[in-house]
Every structure is written in structure tokens, then in C-alpha cells.
Amino acid sequence: MHVMNIIPAHNLACPIDKLELLNKGNYYQCANGHSFDIAKQGYVNLLPVQHKKSKNPGDSKAMVQARTNFLDGDFYKPIADQLSKIIFSQLSDENEHCVLDAGCGEGYYLHQVMNVAQAIDNTSNISFLGIDISKPAIIAASKRTKQASWVVGTNSQPPFLKQSVDLIFCVFGFHSFCGFKKILKPEGKLILVEPGEKHLQELRNIIYAEPTTEKSKDKSDKDADYSLIDTQTLEFEIQLNSNQKILDLLSMTPHLFRANTEGKSIIENMDSLSLTTDIIFKIFEYKLEI
Ligand SMILES: C[S@@+](CC[C@H](N)C(=O)[O-])C[C@H]1O[C@@H](n2cnc3c(N)ncnc32)[C@H](O)[C@@H]1O
Ligand SMILES: [Zn+2]
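Above: query sequence and zinc ion SMILES. Below: predicted holo C-alpha cells.
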């Protein structure tokens, strides 16, 4: 069997002038002389100060650590498995592909997808990119695998060459239809993985005085240049059997910040919790008018 061949990404672009970045060993450089060091952990920071809205944007180190603790329990592996199936069924027959995890966090999903690539009977070359605005998230992702290119950057101005990416996926993230257009190939695919209405409803019922439903974000769910070609759903139960696991889950979601004091104290004293996960996969194709 010939499995997919993972190659280094060669479509990084300077965030200042969008020119190609060349790998010079321990740094990247564009033709205008802008250079970006490759950190000792292997990632590159392509987020210039002018693209930052705060000093330390994105998830904090504590949130990243909670997410790693939770995801390493493989409670969400069914999500990664379905995502991988969709990705490899959507790639064209070409012999080179580039896949981007936009808002990759600490890298769990991209790493899972890469493991699947290494078991696929196919001789094509494939490169993997992970981008997140949070530096602690990218440092954690760099520890998962060195075979991906991990980049600190923003989805709204992704530092990759025009028309160089075959497929972008965004899991529970801050997608940018506009930003993604700048880098997707014509007929490139975009997969959004979002919570459905029942997602973690048991947790929400405990921490909020008024029970809530996950609302789909209609306003940012459409863009004239993309057509929705398929929607899939996934529902399964997870059983958390320690207080630490419950706290990890709470700490990696926005719920922690919105929870009321009473709800938080109930959670702090719980040792087990059974939860519904309800996930929607939206698959879009980018329609470039030529
Ligand atoms: C809910 S987390 C999901 C992380 C990961 N996809 C996962 O599911 O484990 C959202 C992530 O988006 C990142 N983020 C927020 N704004 C962003 C932006 N403009 N560009 C890229 N990433 C962003 C945060 O730092 C955080 O890691
Ligand atoms: Zn430059």
C-alpha cells in the first residue's frame, strides 16, 4: 500500500506584502527582505502587530491547557473521524493537496486528520497547515507533530499564497469567508464544524439560570461566493467521570465566562456528568468567478 506522502507546506506568504516566503533554515524571508524567525518549537509567527486587536489575542494558556487535557481523552474523536472522512472524500484527484485547519487551537483535529492521511491508499503529496491567533495554542500544537506547518496568524488575513489551498476546515472557530477567499483555489472546499442546538445542553442547563439553546449564527453563515454542497450531522453521548474532566470541558468553552456563580459552584462539586454532543458539518464550495 502507498499512503499519502506528507510534504512541508510551500505556500506561506509574507503578512505585510503577500509575497512568497522562502525557508532559509531558521527563518522565512520574502523578496522585500521581511523576515520571520522559526521558533525553537518549529512554528512561525506571521501575525504583525497591525493585525492584532489586543496584546495577547485568542485563547489563553490556561484555556489551551484545559482543551488539551480534555481532547486527549478522545471524547471528541468521533468528530475528528467524521471530519477526516469528509476531507478525504472532498479532495480532488490532483497529485498535490494543501489542507488548512483555520483556528486550529492546540492542534488535536489537524493531527487526527494527518494520522488518517497516513493510512490512505493513495500516492499523492499533501501538506498540512494549522493557523491560530493564539501563540500558546500554536506552541501546544507544535508539540503534537512537526509534520504540519504551524502558524500564528489570523483567519481574516491568512498569510498564505493566493489560490494555494485546496481545503480549509474550521472547528468551533472564528471562520472568515472573506479571508478564506484570498487563499482558496477555485472550487476549493470549506468545512465548518459547528455546535447544533442540543450540544452540551446538560452542561448549559446547570450553569445558566435560564436554559439556553445553541443558536446557529445565521448572519455569518452565508456568502455569495460559496455554495453549500452538503450538510451532515453527528450526535453521540459522552460520559465524564471525574470533576477534573468536567472542569476541563467548562474551561475550554465560552460557557465558563458566561456561567453564573451558583452554576459554577454546582459544577465544582460534580464528579460525573453525561452529555449530549450535537455537531453540524457544513461543506461549502468556493465559486470563483473567472
Ligand atoms: C473554540 S476554539 C477552537 C479550537 C480548535 N479548533 C478546537 O476545536 O479544538 C477557537 C480558536 O480560535 C482562535 N481564534 C480566535 N480568533 C481567531 C482569528 N481571528 N484567527 C485565527 N484563530 C482565531 C482561538 O485562539 C481559539 O484557539
Ligand atoms: Zn514581505
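The mean pLDDT is 93.
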